[in-house]
Specification:
The chain is an all-alpha fold and about 100 residues long. It contains five helices and no strands.
Amino acid sequence: MMANLLCWFVYLIYFIVFISLSFFIGYQQTAVILNVPVMSLAFSDLHVVVVGYEKVVSGGNLYLSNEFDPWSRLYNYPKGWLVRGYLGLDHKNLFFWVC
């Protein structure tokens, strides 16, 4: 029981430090300090999904190539995830994808 409580306490302290440092110096610098891998774009894992719709509209096959993605990553999600593109949610409002 005490070990479990100690683990939660350490996790809570780590989380508070991460949020506090992110507020003062930014999340990218905070992640580097805490040895957490971070990419240059926020929500970059979803970026390939968001730009996938643009590739489909341009007439390409996003499972074979994806030059719309900054890292040229291939699309490996179900086609159903592209429905949000038809609803008008694109890379300009990526924050709303997450919410």
